[in-house]
Write a structure and sequence with these properties.
Blueprint lengths: L2 E4 L5 H4 L2 E12 L7 E8 L3 E5 L4 E5 L4 E7 L9 E6 L10 H6 L6 E6 L5 H13 L4 H22 L11 H33 L1
Antiparallel strand pairs: 1-5, 2-3, 2-8, 3-4, 4-5, 6-7, 7-8
Length: 204
């Protein structure tokens, strides 16, 4: 599930190393714009965690479920500066378990984190980008590898690296070298014959 409510704070082993911690962060779930809860945002390598020590509740988001995240400072788009996260919708073929029904946010496709200090937004965004890079989409990886492989094959056929022999020459270079050597030998023989004839003539 994309967004999960947690009644107890996950431990370090569950969330992984924390890249950035930001206190006093308000969270807006879905189309909520008022009366947000305030807590601490942990941008960890394993998942994104928001936890309210006062209310003893929190939210977790897995990085593969985040399809887009961006810093929003446009007051027309949202009243306060925030980190906007677009969440992957849950497919109709994914049957929720009883635990999912108890903890998951239904039909939530976006969430916003608004720190008390807007200057922290860039730090949060950077840390989140780093953590999300640790969780690439397997389908995108396969497609990327296939496209890269096809591209390599095309480039290999058109601009393949030349095969270099033991003499340090390519096949084409070897042919040109042989032709050039033959020309030198031919020219050398002619010059030597002419020089020899001249010497004999001078001697006469």
């Amino acid at each position: 599930m994309a967004l999960v409510r947690v009644p107890t704070k996950p431990d370090a082993a569950e969330i992984g190393d924390v890249r950035w911690t930001e206190p006093d962060v308000s969270v807006y779930v879905g189309d909520q714009t008022e009366a947000p809860a305030t807590g601490t945002l942990y941008v960890a390598e394993g998942l994104l965690l928001w936890w309210s020590a006062e209310e003893q509740r929190g939210l977790t988001v897995e990085y593969p479920c985040i399809t887009l995240h961006a810093v929003s400072t446009d007051a027309l788009a949202f009243p306060v500066p925030c980190l906007y996260c677009q969440l992957q919708p849950v497919g109709d073929d994914e049957a929720p378990t009883q635990e999912d029904e108890d903890t998951a946010e239904p039909s939530v496709d976006e969430i916003r984190f608004a720190p008390k200090d807007p200057a922290a937004l860039q730090h949060i965004f950077g840390a989140m980008s780093e953590c999300q890079a640790l969780h690439p989409d397997p389908e995108e990886d396969v497609d990327g590898e296939m496209q890269f492989g096809e591209e390599q094959q095309q480039l290999g056929g058109m601009f393949g690296a030349p095969q270099i022999g033991a003499d340090g020459l390519t096949d084409e270079g070897r042919v040109l070298a042989d032709r050039f050597a033959a020309m030198l030998v031919g020219n050398g023989d002619t010059s030597m014959d002419q020089a020899a004839d001249g010497e004999f003539e001078d001697a006469d």
